[in-house]
């Protein structure tokens, strides 16, 4: 992000200098090329994720590479009651999500002991369950579809 802003500022200064020296029109290719580069970088980072409620309703969202699935829910204002109650501190299990077997097997990181302990407290646990706050998006996850259990358990209230 900082690089993009720096490029924009540099391009803006170069454009302004050129305009002052040579009366270059404001629609110079320098400005539009810089804008297009920024947009292209942004598109590369986008990861589309669909959340499927227990009733089958699909919620299409997008995040960016490096976001957790909890970030995606929060940043897209997805209405999942109680989801992510502990804000990713691994103390609630409300971010329980169920993956398709193929997607589950491709996840790069396996759950640690803390996540497994929290998963044990989740309702509707399956062999392909994970905690959304522990899943970090990568570009190859684009098109991911995850199922949201019908009930959640906030382990903090036990
Ligand atoms: S948000 Fe609480 S365990 Fe993931």
From TrEMBL:
Any Gene Ontology biological process: positive regulation of ecdysteroid biosynthetic process
Cell compartment(s), UniProt: Mitochondrion
The keyword Metal-binding is annotated on this UniProt entry: yes
GO MF, any single term: 2 iron, 2 sulfur cluster binding
Keywords on record: 2Fe-2S, Electron transport, Iron, Iron-sulfur, Lipid metabolism, Metal-binding, Mitochondrion, Steroid metabolism, Steroidogenesis, Transport
PROSITE patterns in the cross-refs: 2FE2S_FER_2, ADX
InterPro entries registered for this protein in UniProt: 2Fe-2S_ferredoxin-like_sf, 2Fe-2S_ferredoxin-type, Adrenodoxin-like, Adrenodoxin_Fe-S_BS, Beta-grasp_dom_sf
Primary site of residence: mitochondrion
Gene Ontology CC terms, in alphabetical order: mitochondrion
Keyword Iron-sulfur in record: yes
Name under which the protein is recorded: Adrenodoxin-like protein 2, mitochondrial
Organism this protein belongs to: Drosophila pseudoobscura pseudoobscura
Purpose of the protein: Required for ecdysteroidogenesis in the prothoracic gland which is necessary for larval to pupal transition.
Cofactor(s) this protein cannot do without: [2Fe-2S] cluster
Annotated family: Belongs to the adrenodoxin/putidaredoxin family.
């Amino acid at each position: 992000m900082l690089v993009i802003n720096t490029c924009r500022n540099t391009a803006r200064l170069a454009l302004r200098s050129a305009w002052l020296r040579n009366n270059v029109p404001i629609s110079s290719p320098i400005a539009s090329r810089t804008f297009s580069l920024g947009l292209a970088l942004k598109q590369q980072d986008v990861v589309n994720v669909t959340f499927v409620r227990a009733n089958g309703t699909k919620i299409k969202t997008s995040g960016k590479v490096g976001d957790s699935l909890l970030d995606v829910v929060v940043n897209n204002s997805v209405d999942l009651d109680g989801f992510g109650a502990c804000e990713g501190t691994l103390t609630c299990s409300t971010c329980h999500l169920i993956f398709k077997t193929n997607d589950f097997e491709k996840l790069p990181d396996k759950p640690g002991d803390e996540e497994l302990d929290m998963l044990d407290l989740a309702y509707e646990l399956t062999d392909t369950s994970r905690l959304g706050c522990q899943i970090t998006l990568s570009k190859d996850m684009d098109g991911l579809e995850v199922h949201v259990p019908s009930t959640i358990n906030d382990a903090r209230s036990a």
